[in-house]
C-alpha cells in the first residue's frame, strides 16, 4: 500500500496493520506518536524527525539510507540519550566508529595527532585509576617495605629498554657486557662486548625491534638484535663528536634516532638500516641530558648545564630555546598524561614544562635522581642515583607533590613493563632493581617511544 506524500507537519497514525508502509519521497515529521505500529516493512529514503516516541514499535525491516534525529526514545516519554531504549534491544549487527583515542598508541607524533595521543595517554592512566590520577585500584597498593626488590646482577649500566619479546635490555656503560633481564623468569644474563668504559649512555627501541645504544665515549654506535642476541657496531661516526658526547636518545616518527648532546656541540642524528646505519650532525646544542618525545613530534632537550630548555623540531631541523631554567641541573624527563613534561632533578628542584604555553614552573627542592618513569596510575617514579630513596611525584593541574618511596640508591634510568613493575638499571648498585606497582599496564603503552628510552 502506498501512502500519499506527507508535508512537514504532525501526522498521526492511530491504528492499523499493514504489510508494507512505503514513502518514496522524504518523510519529515516533527513527532511520531502511536501506541502500536506493526508492519513487515517500513521504507524511506530519508527519515527525519526531532522526536520518535512509542510504547511498541514492531517491524521486520526498517530501511533508511539516512536517519537524522536528535532523540529516539522507545518506552519513554522523556528520552535522556540520543537513543534511549527502555527494555530489551535485539540487533543482528552493529557498526561502531573507530575509537580514535585507542589509535593514539599507533599514530605518529605530529601537531595534527598531538591531541589524540595525549588523550590516549590520559585514557590509559585513568583506566588504571580507581577515581583520580594517583589513586590506583584498591588491590594494587604494595605493603610498605615490599615495594622494591632486586635480582643479582653486574653493575655499570645506564638506562634500559623494553623489547617486544618482554625482556629488558640493560645498556652497557662499562663496555664489557649487555645485561638482559627476563621478567617471566626473573633471570639475569649477559652478552659480552668490548666497547670500552663509558661506551654508551642510554638506549632506545628501533622500529625494527633492535636496540640502539647511544654513544658517549664510543666512536661507534652500538646495536643489539634481541631476535638473535647479537651485538654489532656501525662504522665510526664522522665527524667524530667530542668525548662524553651524548646522553640519551629518542626515536622520532621518521624512524631516525635523536642523540641528546651532553658534551657534544650539536645534536646527533642516526638513520638505521638493516646492515647498520648512518650518522649525521644536526643543529647546534649542548649541555643536555635526556630527551622526551612530545605528542606534537618535537623533542624536548632536558637541560643539565644549559641555560634553557631545548626544543628540537625534526621537520625544520632546528633547535629553539625554551624557558630559562636558571642553571638548574636535570637528568631526564617524563611526559605527563596531560602533555606537560616533568624534569627529573639531579641537583636542583623538580621542573615542569608546558609545551602548549611554553611555561616553566618548579615544585620542590630535591635532588639525586637520574631518569624517571610514568607509572600506570599517572604518578612519576624518580630513579635514585645518589638519593637514598625512590622519589614519587604526583602531578596536579597547577603543580604537584613529592614524597619518598622505598630505600634504594645507585640506579640510572628505568622502564615500566606490562606486569606493572619498573625495572631499574644498576649503575653502582649490584642488583637489577624491581619496583612493584602491582598495577598492570598495556604493552603498547610500555613500548611507546615517548616512554621506552633513556
- Structure annotation, total helices: 2
Q: Main beta sheet: strand number and arrangement?
A: 7 strands, parallel
Q: What is the approximate shape?
A: globular
* Helix/strand class: mainly beta
> Might you state the CATH topology name of the largest domain?
Methylamine Dehydrogenase, Chain H
Low-confidence stretches: 8-17
What is the topology?
Layout: E1 17-18, E2 21-23, E3 27-34, E4 37-54, E5 57-69, E6 72-74, E7 83-85, H1 114-128, E8 148-152, E9 157-162, E10 168-172, E11 177-182, E12 187-192, E13 200-205, E14 211-215, E15 222-225, E16 230-233, E17 246-251, E18 257-261, E19 266-273, E20 276-284, E21 288-293, E22 299-303, E23 308-313, E24 318-324, E25 330-335, E26 341-345, E27 349-354, E28 359-365, E29 369-374, E30 380-384, E31 389-395, E32 400-407, E33 411-416, E34 421-426, E35 431-436, H2 443-447
Parallel strand pairs: 1-4, 2-4, 3-4, 4-5, 4-6, 6-7
Antiparallel strand pairs: 8-35, 9-10, 10-11, 11-12, 13-14, 14-15, 15-16, 17-18, 18-19, 19-20, 21-22, 22-23, 23-24, 25-26, 26-27, 27-28, 29-30, 30-31, 31-32, 33-34, 34-35
Question: Please, could you describe this protein's structure?
Answer:
There is one protein chain. This protein is mostly beta strands. It folds into 2 domains: 17-85, no CATH class; 121-447, Methylamine Dehydrogenase, Chain H (7 Propeller). It is 4% helix and 48% strand. It contains 2 helices and 35 strands. Strands 1, 2, 3, 4, 5, 6 and 7 form a 7-stranded parallel sheet that branches. Strands 8-35-34-33 form a 4-stranded antiparallel sheet, with no helix packed on it. The relative contact order is 0.11. The model is unreliable at 8-17 (pLDDT under 50).
Amino acid at each position: 500500500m502506498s501512502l500519499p506524500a506527507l508535508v512537514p507537519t504532525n501526522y498521526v497514525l492511530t491504528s492499523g496493520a499493514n504489510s508494507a508502509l512505503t514513502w518514496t519521497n522524504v518523510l519529515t515529521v516533527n513527532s511520531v506518536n502511536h501506541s502500536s505500529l506493526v508492519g513487515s516493512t517500513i521504507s524511506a529514503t530519508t527519515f527525519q524527525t526531532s522526536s520518535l516516541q512509542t510504547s511498541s514499535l514492531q517491524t521486520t525491516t526498517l530501511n533508511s539510507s539516512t536517519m537524522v534525529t536528535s532523540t529516539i526514545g522507545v518506552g519513554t516519554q522523556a528520552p535522556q540519550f540520543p537513543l534511549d531504549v527502555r527494555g530489551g534491544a535485539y540487533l543482528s549487527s552493529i557498526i561502531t566508529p573507530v575509537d580514535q583515542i585507542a589509535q593514539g598508541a599507533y599514530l605518529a607524533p605530529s601537531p595534527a595527532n598531538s591531541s589524540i595521543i595525549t588523550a590516549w595517554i590520559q585514557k590509559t592512566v585513568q583506566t588504571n585509576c580507581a577515581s583520580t590520577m594517583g589513586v590506583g585500584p584498591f588491590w594494587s597498593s604494595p605493603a610498605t617495605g615490599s615495594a622494591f626488590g632486586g635480582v643479582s646482577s653486574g653493575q655499570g649500566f645506564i638506562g634500559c629498554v623494553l623489547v617486544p619479546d618482554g625482556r629488558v635490555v640493560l645498556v652497557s656503560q662499562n663496555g664489557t657486557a649487555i645485561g638482559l633481564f627476563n621478567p617471566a623468569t626473573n633471570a639475569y644474563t649477559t652478552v659480552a662486548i668490548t666497547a670500552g668504559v663509558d661506551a654508551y649512555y642510554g638506549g632506545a627501541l628501533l622500529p625494527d625491534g633492535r636496540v640502539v645504544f647511544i654513544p658517549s665515549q664510543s666512536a661507534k654506535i652500538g646495536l643489539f638484535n634481541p631476535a638473535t642476541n647479537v651485538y654489532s657496531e656501525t662504522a665510526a661516526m664522522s665527524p667524530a663528536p667530542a668525548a662524553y658526547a651524548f646522553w640519551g636518545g629518542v626515536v622520532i616518527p621518521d624512524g631516525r634516532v635523536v642523540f641528546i648532546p651532553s658534551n657534544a656541540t650539536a645534536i646527533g642524528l642516526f638513520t638505521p638500516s638493516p646492515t647498520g646505519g648512518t650518522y649525521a650532525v644536526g643543529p647546534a646544542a649542548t649541555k643536555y641530558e635526556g630527551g622526551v618525545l612530545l605528542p606534537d613530534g618535537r623533542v624536548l632537550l632536558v637541560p643539565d648545564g644549559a641555560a634553557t630548555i631545548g626544543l628540537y623540531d625534526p621537520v625544520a631541523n632546528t633547535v629553539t630555546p625554551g624557558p630559562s631554567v636558571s642553571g638548574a641541573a636535570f637528568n631526564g624527563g617524563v611526559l605527563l598524561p596531560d602533555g606537560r613534561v616533568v624534569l627529573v632533578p639531579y641537583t636542583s628542584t623538580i621542573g615542569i614544562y608546558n609545551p602548549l604555553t611554553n611555561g616553566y614552573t618548579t615544585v620542590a627542592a630535591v635532588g639525586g635522581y637520574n631518569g624517571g618513569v610514568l607509572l600506570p596510575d599517572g604518578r612519576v617514579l624518580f630513579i635514585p642515583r645518589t638519593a637514598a630513596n625512590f622519589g614519587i611525584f604526583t602531578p596536579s593541574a597547577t603543580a604537584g607533590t613529592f614524597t619518598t618511596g622505598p630505600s634504594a640508591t645507585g640506579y640510572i634510568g628505568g622502564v615500566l613493563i606490562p606486569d606493572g613493575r619498573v625495572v631499574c638499571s644498576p649503575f653502582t648498585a649490584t642488583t637489577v632493581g624491581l619496583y612493584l606497582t602491582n598495577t598492570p599496564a598495556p604493552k603498547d603503552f610500555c613500548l611507546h617511544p615517548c616512554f621506552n628510552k633513556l
